[in-house]
Protein backbone atom coordinates (compact mmCIF):
# COMPACT_ATOMS: atom_id res chain seq x y z
CA UNK A 1 0.00 0.00 0.00
CA UNK A 2 1.18 3.50 -0.76
CA UNK A 3 0.01 6.84 0.63
CA UNK A 4 -0.95 8.07 -2.82
CA UNK A 5 -3.62 5.45 -3.39
CA UNK A 6 -7.39 5.62 -3.14
CA UNK A 7 -7.41 2.60 -0.82
CA UNK A 8 -5.18 4.38 1.67
CA UNK A 9 -6.87 7.79 1.41
CA UNK A 10 -10.50 6.69 1.64
CA UNK A 11 -10.41 3.41 3.56
CA UNK A 12 -7.25 2.70 5.52
CA UNK A 13 -6.50 6.18 6.92
CA UNK A 14 -10.08 7.14 7.95
CA UNK A 15 -10.60 3.74 9.59
CA UNK A 16 -7.27 4.03 11.38
CA UNK A 17 -8.03 7.53 12.65
CA UNK A 18 -11.46 6.40 13.90
CA UNK A 19 -10.09 3.50 15.96
CA UNK A 20 -7.13 5.56 17.15
CA UNK A 21 -9.18 8.46 18.52
CA UNK A 22 -11.92 6.16 19.81
CA UNK A 23 -9.35 4.41 22.01
CA UNK A 24 -9.60 5.42 25.68
CA UNK A 25 -5.87 5.71 26.43
CA UNK A 26 -2.39 5.80 24.89
CA UNK A 27 -1.95 2.13 25.74
CA UNK A 28 -4.84 1.20 23.48
CA UNK A 29 -3.74 3.71 20.89
CA UNK A 30 -0.29 2.13 20.77
CA UNK A 31 -1.85 -1.24 19.98
CA UNK A 32 -4.03 0.35 17.30
CA UNK A 33 -0.87 1.82 15.76
CA UNK A 34 0.92 -1.54 15.87
CA UNK A 35 -1.97 -3.47 14.30
CA UNK A 36 -2.62 -0.95 11.52
CA UNK A 37 1.11 -0.56 10.83
CA UNK A 38 1.53 -4.31 10.40
CA UNK A 39 -1.55 -4.47 8.17
CA UNK A 40 -0.14 -1.60 6.09
CA UNK A 41 3.20 -3.38 5.72
CA UNK A 42 1.58 -6.75 4.97
CA UNK A 43 -0.70 -5.32 2.29
CA UNK A 44 1.74 -6.12 -0.48
CA UNK A 45 4.23 -8.55 1.09
CA UNK A 46 2.82 -10.34 4.18
CA UNK A 47 5.73 -12.80 4.28
CA UNK A 48 8.19 -10.06 5.29
CA UNK A 49 6.33 -9.18 8.51
CA UNK A 50 8.27 -11.99 10.17
CA UNK A 51 11.57 -10.34 9.17
CA UNK A 52 10.42 -6.96 10.51
CA UNK A 53 9.34 -8.48 13.84
CA UNK A 54 12.56 -10.52 14.06
CA UNK A 55 14.67 -7.41 13.46
CA UNK A 56 12.74 -5.49 16.12
CA UNK A 57 13.04 -8.38 18.58
CA UNK A 58 16.80 -8.84 18.33
CA UNK A 59 17.48 -5.15 18.80
CA UNK A 60 15.03 -4.86 21.68
CA UNK A 61 16.89 -7.71 23.43
CA UNK A 62 20.30 -6.25 22.60
CA UNK A 63 19.28 -2.88 23.99
CA UNK A 64 18.21 -4.51 27.25
CA UNK A 65 21.45 -6.53 27.40
CA UNK A 66 23.58 -3.43 26.96
CA UNK A 67 21.76 -1.46 29.63
CA UNK A 68 21.55 -4.30 32.17
CA UNK A 69 25.24 -5.22 31.93
CA UNK A 70 27.84 -3.07 33.63
CA UNK A 71 30.75 -5.17 32.33
CA UNK A 72 32.31 -3.28 29.44
CA UNK A 73 33.21 -6.30 27.31
CA UNK A 74 29.67 -7.68 27.57
CA UNK A 75 28.23 -4.35 26.47
CA UNK A 76 30.62 -4.23 23.52
CA UNK A 77 29.83 -7.83 22.65
CA UNK A 78 26.09 -7.05 22.62
CA UNK A 79 26.68 -3.98 20.45
CA UNK A 80 28.83 -5.91 17.96
CA UNK A 81 26.32 -8.75 17.92
CA UNK A 82 23.46 -6.38 17.10
CA UNK A 83 25.38 -4.61 14.33
CA UNK A 84 26.56 -7.91 12.85
CA UNK A 85 23.05 -9.39 12.82
CA UNK A 86 21.50 -6.28 11.30
CA UNK A 87 24.12 -5.93 8.59
CA UNK A 88 23.94 -9.65 7.87
CA UNK A 89 20.18 -9.47 7.31
CA UNK A 90 20.53 -6.37 5.15
CA UNK A 91 23.46 -7.87 3.25
CA UNK A 92 21.73 -11.21 2.67
CA UNK A 93 18.45 -9.86 1.34
CA UNK A 94 19.76 -6.81 -0.49
CA UNK A 95 23.36 -7.49 -1.52
CA UNK A 96 23.94 -11.27 -1.68
CA UNK A 97 23.48 -11.54 -5.44
CA UNK A 98 25.41 -8.31 -6.05
CA UNK A 99 28.52 -9.49 -4.19
CA UNK A 100 28.28 -13.03 -5.58
CA UNK A 101 28.19 -11.66 -9.13
CA UNK A 102 31.13 -9.35 -8.39
CA UNK A 103 33.19 -12.27 -7.03
CA UNK A 104 32.31 -14.41 -10.04
CA UNK A 105 33.61 -11.73 -12.40
CA UNK A 106 36.71 -11.05 -10.31
CA UNK A 107 37.74 -14.65 -9.62
CA UNK A 108 36.14 -16.42 -12.56
CA UNK A 109 34.09 -18.59 -10.19
CA UNK A 110 30.51 -19.77 -10.52
CA UNK A 111 28.95 -18.89 -7.19
CA UNK A 112 25.17 -19.37 -7.50
CA UNK A 113 23.21 -16.13 -7.34
CA UNK A 114 20.45 -15.83 -4.75
CA UNK A 115 17.39 -13.94 -5.90
CA UNK A 116 15.00 -12.80 -3.20
CA UNK A 117 12.30 -10.20 -3.39
CA UNK A 118 13.67 -7.17 -1.55
CA UNK A 119 11.71 -6.62 1.69
CA UNK A 120 10.19 -3.15 1.43
CA UNK A 121 11.76 -0.63 3.78
CA UNK A 122 14.51 -2.93 5.04
CA UNK A 123 17.18 -0.26 4.50
CA UNK A 124 15.18 2.24 6.56
CA UNK A 125 14.08 0.15 9.53
CA UNK A 126 17.47 -1.60 9.79
CA UNK A 127 19.20 1.77 10.18
CA UNK A 128 16.59 2.84 12.74
CA UNK A 129 17.07 -0.19 14.98
CA UNK A 130 20.85 0.02 14.64
CA UNK A 131 20.82 3.69 15.68
CA UNK A 132 18.73 2.73 18.72
CA UNK A 133 21.21 0.10 19.94
CA UNK A 134 24.20 2.38 19.32
CA UNK A 135 22.51 5.23 21.22
CA UNK A 136 21.73 2.92 24.14
CA UNK A 137 25.37 1.83 24.21
CA UNK A 138 26.62 5.43 24.14
CA UNK A 139 24.19 6.44 26.89
CA UNK A 140 22.18 8.85 24.75
CA UNK A 141 18.91 7.03 25.48
CA UNK A 142 17.60 4.55 28.00
CA UNK A 143 16.72 1.11 26.70
CA UNK A 144 13.00 0.62 26.10
CA UNK A 145 11.60 -1.77 28.70
CA UNK A 146 8.35 -2.64 26.91
CA UNK A 147 8.54 -4.74 23.78
CA UNK A 148 5.22 -3.41 22.45
CA UNK A 149 6.54 0.15 22.60
CA UNK A 150 9.68 -0.78 20.72
CA UNK A 151 7.76 -2.76 18.10
CA UNK A 152 5.52 0.26 17.59
CA UNK A 153 8.58 2.47 17.05
CA UNK A 154 10.03 0.11 14.44
CA UNK A 155 6.77 -0.62 12.62
CA UNK A 156 5.17 2.87 12.50
CA UNK A 157 3.82 2.87 8.96
CA UNK A 158 4.22 6.64 8.54
CA UNK A 159 7.94 6.30 7.87
CA UNK A 160 8.45 2.53 7.71
CA UNK A 161 8.89 1.92 4.00
CA UNK A 162 10.59 5.08 2.70
CA UNK A 163 11.70 7.20 5.61
CA UNK A 164 12.65 9.60 6.90
CA UNK A 165 14.97 7.55 9.13
CA UNK A 166 13.53 8.30 12.58
CA UNK A 167 15.85 7.87 15.54
CA UNK A 168 14.41 6.46 18.73
CA UNK A 169 15.74 9.30 20.85
CA UNK A 170 13.78 11.84 18.77
CA UNK A 171 10.39 10.28 19.59
CA UNK A 172 11.15 8.35 22.82
CA UNK A 173 8.99 10.65 24.93
CA UNK A 174 6.10 10.58 22.46
CA UNK A 175 5.97 6.80 22.44
CA UNK A 176 4.56 6.87 25.96
CA UNK A 177 3.21 10.42 26.29
CA UNK A 178 1.49 12.02 23.32
CA UNK A 179 -0.72 15.04 23.41
CA UNK A 180 -3.05 16.07 20.63
CA UNK A 181 -4.71 19.33 19.73
CA UNK A 182 -6.92 20.61 16.96
CA UNK A 183 -4.13 22.89 15.71
CA UNK A 184 -1.69 19.99 15.49
CA UNK A 185 -4.24 17.81 13.72
CA UNK A 186 -4.84 20.64 11.26
CA UNK A 187 -1.08 20.98 10.73
CA UNK A 188 -0.91 17.24 10.00
CA UNK A 189 -3.65 17.48 7.37
CA UNK A 190 -1.94 20.45 5.72
CA UNK A 191 1.46 18.79 5.62
CA UNK A 192 0.00 15.52 4.30
CA UNK A 193 -2.00 17.37 1.63
CA UNK A 194 1.08 19.26 0.45
CA UNK A 195 3.07 16.02 0.24
CA UNK A 196 0.27 14.29 -1.64
CA UNK A 197 0.08 17.18 -4.11
CA UNK A 198 3.85 17.08 -4.60
CA UNK A 199 3.68 13.40 -5.40
CA UNK A 200 0.52 13.06 -7.48
CA UNK A 201 0.24 16.43 -9.20
CA UNK A 202 3.90 17.23 -9.86
CA UNK A 203 6.15 14.17 -9.45
CA UNK A 204 3.97 11.84 -11.51
CA UNK A 205 3.54 14.42 -14.27
CA UNK A 206 7.22 15.30 -14.65
CA UNK A 207 8.11 11.61 -14.30
CA UNK A 208 5.94 10.66 -17.25
CA UNK A 209 7.34 13.57 -19.26
CA UNK A 210 10.95 12.55 -18.49
CA UNK A 211 10.44 9.02 -19.85
CA UNK A 212 10.00 10.42 -23.34
CA UNK A 213 13.68 11.42 -23.23
CA UNK A 214 15.19 8.86 -20.86
CA UNK A 215 13.51 5.75 -22.23
CA UNK A 216 13.30 6.84 -25.84
CA UNK A 217 15.62 6.29 -28.75
CA UNK A 218 18.98 7.89 -27.91
CA UNK A 219 19.79 8.31 -31.60
CA UNK A 220 16.91 10.78 -31.91
CA UNK A 221 17.90 12.71 -28.77
CA UNK A 222 19.36 16.22 -28.99
CA UNK A 223 21.91 17.69 -26.57
CA UNK A 224 19.43 20.04 -24.93
CA UNK A 225 16.81 17.27 -25.02
CA UNK A 226 19.11 15.10 -22.91
CA UNK A 227 19.57 17.93 -20.40
CA UNK A 228 15.83 18.60 -20.33
CA UNK A 229 15.03 14.92 -19.77
CA UNK A 230 17.39 14.50 -16.82
CA UNK A 231 16.22 17.85 -15.39
CA UNK A 232 12.67 16.49 -15.43
CA UNK A 233 13.87 13.37 -13.61
CA UNK A 234 15.69 15.55 -11.07
CA UNK A 235 12.41 17.31 -10.34
CA UNK A 236 10.55 14.02 -10.22
CA UNK A 237 12.80 12.41 -7.64
CA UNK A 238 12.75 15.57 -5.50
CA UNK A 239 8.96 15.88 -5.48
CA UNK A 240 8.51 12.12 -5.17
CA UNK A 241 10.77 11.68 -2.14
CA UNK A 242 10.19 15.02 -0.43
CA UNK A 243 6.45 14.53 -1.01
CA UNK A 244 6.62 11.16 0.72
CA UNK A 245 8.58 12.71 3.60
CA UNK A 246 5.98 15.50 3.88
CA UNK A 247 3.19 12.91 4.04
CA UNK A 248 5.09 10.93 6.67
CA UNK A 249 5.65 14.07 8.78
CA UNK A 250 1.98 15.02 8.36
CA UNK A 251 0.82 11.55 9.42
CA UNK A 252 3.12 11.82 12.41
CA UNK A 253 1.32 14.99 13.50
CA UNK A 254 -2.07 13.30 13.05
CA UNK A 255 -1.04 10.61 15.52
CA UNK A 256 1.00 12.73 17.93
CA UNK A 257 4.57 12.20 16.66
CA UNK A 258 7.10 14.81 15.59
CA UNK A 259 9.46 13.69 12.83
CA UNK A 260 12.42 15.83 11.84
CA UNK A 261 12.60 17.52 8.45
CA UNK A 262 14.14 15.46 5.65
CA UNK A 263 14.46 18.11 2.91
CA UNK A 264 15.31 21.82 2.98
CA UNK A 265 15.10 23.07 -0.62
CA UNK A 266 18.22 21.22 -1.86
CA UNK A 267 18.18 22.76 -5.32
CA UNK A 268 18.95 26.24 -3.96
CA UNK A 269 22.32 24.95 -2.67
CA UNK A 270 25.56 26.30 -4.12
CA UNK A 271 27.84 23.33 -3.46
CA UNK A 272 27.61 19.54 -3.30
CA UNK A 273 28.28 19.67 0.45
CA UNK A 274 25.40 22.11 0.96
CA UNK A 275 23.15 20.03 -1.29
CA UNK A 276 23.64 17.00 0.95
CA UNK A 277 22.92 19.02 4.05
CA UNK A 278 19.52 19.67 2.49
CA UNK A 279 18.74 16.38 0.68
CA UNK A 280 17.64 13.22 2.57
CA UNK A 281 18.84 14.83 5.80
CA UNK A 282 18.05 11.78 7.95
CA UNK A 283 20.35 9.54 5.88
CA UNK A 284 23.17 12.09 5.75
CA UNK A 285 23.04 12.67 9.51
CA UNK A 286 23.00 8.90 10.12
CA UNK A 287 26.23 8.37 8.17
CA UNK A 288 27.76 11.46 9.77
CA UNK A 289 27.00 10.42 13.36
CA UNK A 290 27.45 6.64 13.11
CA UNK A 291 30.16 6.26 10.45
CA UNK A 292 32.05 9.47 9.62
CA UNK A 293 32.63 10.83 13.13
CA UNK A 294 33.52 7.43 14.71
CA UNK A 295 36.07 6.91 11.90
CA UNK A 296 37.74 10.19 12.84
CA UNK A 297 35.71 12.77 10.92
CA UNK A 298 37.75 15.80 9.92
CA UNK A 299 40.39 15.11 12.59
CA UNK A 300 42.24 12.23 10.93
CA UNK A 301 42.13 10.45 7.56
CA UNK A 302 39.40 12.83 6.38
CA UNK A 303 39.60 11.85 2.72
CA UNK A 304 39.50 8.13 3.51
CA UNK A 305 36.56 8.67 5.84
CA UNK A 306 34.72 10.58 3.14
CA UNK A 307 35.44 7.82 0.62
CA UNK A 308 33.99 5.18 2.96
CA UNK A 309 30.90 7.24 3.76
CA UNK A 310 30.09 8.01 0.14
CA UNK A 311 30.77 4.45 -0.99
CA UNK A 312 28.29 3.27 1.64
CA UNK A 313 25.83 6.02 0.72
CA UNK A 314 25.80 4.86 -2.87
CA UNK A 315 25.57 1.21 -1.91
CA UNK A 316 22.71 1.92 0.51
CA UNK A 317 20.61 3.13 -2.41
CA UNK A 318 20.86 -0.15 -4.28
CA UNK A 319 22.84 -3.27 -5.06
CA UNK A 320 24.13 -1.99 -8.37
CA UNK A 321 27.37 -0.42 -9.57
CA UNK A 322 25.60 2.66 -10.89
CA UNK A 323 24.60 3.58 -7.31
CA UNK A 324 28.13 2.97 -6.06
CA UNK A 325 29.49 5.20 -8.83
CA UNK A 326 26.83 7.82 -8.05
CA UNK A 327 27.86 7.84 -4.38
CA UNK A 328 31.57 8.06 -5.15
CA UNK A 329 30.90 10.82 -7.68
CA UNK A 330 29.33 12.99 -4.98
CA UNK A 331 32.03 11.92 -2.55
CA UNK A 332 34.69 13.19 -4.96
CA UNK A 333 32.89 16.52 -5.31
CA UNK A 334 32.66 16.91 -1.52
CA UNK A 335 36.36 16.02 -1.15
CA UNK A 336 37.39 18.58 -3.78
CA UNK A 337 35.27 21.26 -2.13
CA UNK A 338 36.85 20.55 1.26
CA UNK A 339 40.33 20.77 -0.28
CA UNK A 340 39.72 23.86 -2.43
CA UNK A 341 37.79 25.99 0.05
CA UNK A 342 40.68 26.54 2.51
CA UNK A 343 43.03 27.33 -0.40
CA UNK A 344 40.81 30.22 -1.46
CA UNK A 345 41.23 31.92 1.92
CA UNK A 346 44.93 31.18 2.40
CA UNK A 347 46.06 32.03 -1.12
CA UNK A 348 48.90 34.56 -1.34
CA UNK A 349 48.35 37.05 -2.79
CA UNK A 350 44.63 36.99 -1.88
CA UNK A 351 42.32 36.05 -4.73
CA UNK A 352 40.14 38.91 -6.00
CA UNK A 353 36.76 39.01 -4.28
CA UNK A 354 33.88 38.54 -6.72
CA UNK A 355 30.55 40.34 -6.27
CA UNK A 356 28.26 38.33 -4.02
CA UNK A 357 25.47 38.04 -6.59
CA UNK A 358 27.94 36.71 -9.16
CA UNK A 359 29.40 34.16 -6.73
CA UNK A 360 25.90 32.93 -5.86
CA UNK A 361 24.95 32.62 -9.52
CA UNK A 362 28.12 30.66 -10.37
CA UNK A 363 27.57 28.45 -7.34
CA UNK A 364 23.99 27.65 -8.38
CA UNK A 365 25.00 26.89 -11.97
CA UNK A 366 27.80 24.61 -10.74
CA UNK A 367 25.51 22.79 -8.30
CA UNK A 368 22.66 22.21 -10.76
CA UNK A 369 25.12 21.01 -13.42
CA UNK A 370 26.89 18.45 -11.21
CA UNK A 371 23.63 17.24 -9.66
CA UNK A 372 22.02 16.62 -13.06
CA UNK A 373 25.11 14.70 -14.17
CA UNK A 374 24.83 12.68 -10.97
CA UNK A 375 21.17 11.86 -11.63
CA UNK A 376 22.22 10.17 -14.87
CA UNK A 377 24.22 7.61 -12.86
CA UNK A 378 21.29 7.26 -10.46
CA UNK A 379 18.68 6.69 -13.17
CA UNK A 380 20.44 4.23 -15.47
CA UNK A 381 21.32 0.94 -13.78
CA UNK A 382 23.11 -0.06 -16.97
CA UNK A 383 26.34 1.96 -16.95
CA UNK A 384 26.72 1.71 -20.71
CA UNK A 385 23.39 3.54 -21.07
CA UNK A 386 24.51 6.10 -18.50
CA UNK A 387 27.74 6.90 -20.34
CA UNK A 388 25.93 7.01 -23.69
CA UNK A 389 23.47 9.51 -22.25
CA UNK A 390 26.29 11.59 -20.74
CA UNK A 391 28.05 11.64 -24.12
CA UNK A 392 24.91 13.15 -25.67
CA UNK A 393 24.70 15.74 -22.87
CA UNK A 394 28.34 16.68 -23.45
CA UNK A 395 27.83 16.99 -27.23
CA UNK A 396 30.23 14.12 -27.93
CA UNK A 397 27.79 11.79 -29.66
CA UNK A 398 27.12 13.80 -32.80
CA UNK A 399 23.61 14.73 -31.64
CA UNK A 400 22.11 18.05 -32.74
CA UNK A 401 21.89 20.83 -30.18
CA UNK A 402 18.10 21.18 -30.54
CA UNK A 403 15.47 19.04 -32.22
CA UNK A 404 11.88 19.57 -33.29
CA UNK A 405 10.80 16.93 -30.78
CA UNK A 406 12.42 18.89 -27.93
CA UNK A 407 10.64 22.10 -28.96
CA UNK A 408 7.30 20.27 -29.00
CA UNK A 409 7.87 18.55 -25.65
CA UNK A 410 9.21 21.73 -24.04
CA UNK A 411 6.19 23.74 -25.17
CA UNK A 412 3.85 21.00 -23.95
CA UNK A 413 5.43 20.91 -20.49
CA UNK A 414 6.63 24.50 -20.09
CA UNK A 415 4.08 25.49 -17.44
CA UNK A 416 4.58 22.26 -15.48
CA UNK A 417 8.36 22.66 -15.66
CA UNK A 418 8.24 26.30 -14.53
CA UNK A 419 5.86 25.60 -11.64
CA UNK A 420 7.96 22.65 -10.49
CA UNK A 421 11.12 24.78 -10.49
CA UNK A 422 9.48 27.67 -8.61
CA UNK A 423 7.98 25.42 -5.93
CA UNK A 424 11.32 23.68 -5.39
CA UNK A 425 12.57 27.00 -3.97
CA UNK A 426 11.47 28.83 -0.78
CA UNK A 427 9.11 30.95 -2.89
CA UNK A 428 6.00 30.23 -0.80
CA UNK A 429 7.68 31.04 2.57
CA UNK A 430 9.07 34.22 0.99
CA UNK A 431 5.57 35.13 -0.19
CA UNK A 432 4.22 34.65 3.34
CA UNK A 433 6.86 36.98 4.77
CA UNK A 434 6.49 39.52 1.97
CA UNK A 435 2.72 39.81 2.36
CA UNK A 436 2.36 39.55 6.10
CA UNK A 437 -0.86 41.54 6.03
CA UNK A 438 -2.55 38.58 4.34
CA UNK A 439 -3.62 35.70 6.55
CA UNK A 440 -2.28 32.70 4.65
CA UNK A 441 -3.60 30.38 7.36
CA UNK A 442 -7.15 31.34 6.39
CA UNK A 443 -6.52 30.00 2.88
CA UNK A 444 -4.91 26.74 4.04
CA UNK A 445 -8.18 24.71 4.30
CA UNK A 446 -9.05 25.77 0.76
CA UNK A 447 -5.57 24.81 -0.46
CA UNK A 448 -5.81 21.45 1.35
CA UNK A 449 -9.21 20.72 -0.19
CA UNK A 450 -7.94 21.61 -3.67
CA UNK A 451 -4.84 19.39 -3.30
CA UNK A 452 -6.90 16.44 -2.02
CA UNK A 453 -9.56 16.77 -4.73
CA UNK A 454 -7.04 17.29 -7.54
CA UNK A 455 -4.90 14.39 -6.36
CA UNK A 456 -7.94 12.12 -6.08
CA UNK A 457 -9.07 13.04 -9.58
CA UNK A 458 -5.62 12.24 -10.97
CA UNK A 459 -5.43 8.94 -9.07
CA UNK A 460 -8.72 7.66 -10.49
CA UNK A 461 -7.70 5.36 -13.31
CA UNK A 462 -4.02 6.31 -13.01
CA UNK A 463 -1.53 3.71 -14.21
CA UNK A 464 1.63 5.68 -13.34
CA UNK A 465 2.11 6.10 -9.59
CA UNK A 466 5.50 4.77 -8.46
CA UNK A 467 7.38 5.71 -5.31
CA UNK A 468 11.04 5.80 -6.36
CA UNK A 469 12.49 5.21 -2.90
CA UNK A 470 10.40 2.11 -2.18
CA UNK A 471 13.04 0.01 -3.93
CA UNK A 472 15.73 1.07 -1.43
Automatic annotation (TrEMBL):
It holds the Pfam family MBOAT. GO terms for biological process: alginic acid biosynthetic process. InterPro entries: Ac/AlaTfrase_AlgI/DltB, AlgI, MB_O-acyltransferase, MBOAT_fam. It is a multi-pass membrane protein. The keyword Acyltransferase applies. One of its GO terms (molecular function) is acyltransferase activity. This is Alginate O-acetyltransferase complex protein AlgI. It comes from Anoxynatronum buryatiense.
Amino acid sequence: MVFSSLTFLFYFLPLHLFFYYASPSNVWRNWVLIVFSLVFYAWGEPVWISLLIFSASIDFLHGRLIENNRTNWKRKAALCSSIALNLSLLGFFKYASFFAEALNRLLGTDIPLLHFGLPIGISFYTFQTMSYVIDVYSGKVKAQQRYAHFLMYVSLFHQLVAGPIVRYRDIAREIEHRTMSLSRFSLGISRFSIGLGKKVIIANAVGEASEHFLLGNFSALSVLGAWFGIALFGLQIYYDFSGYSDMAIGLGHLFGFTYLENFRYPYIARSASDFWRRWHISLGSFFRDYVYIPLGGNRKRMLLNLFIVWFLTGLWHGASWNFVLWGLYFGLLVMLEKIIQPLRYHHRPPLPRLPEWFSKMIGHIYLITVVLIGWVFFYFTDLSHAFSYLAIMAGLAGAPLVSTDLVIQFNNHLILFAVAIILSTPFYPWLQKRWRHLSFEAFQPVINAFLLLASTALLVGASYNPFLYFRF
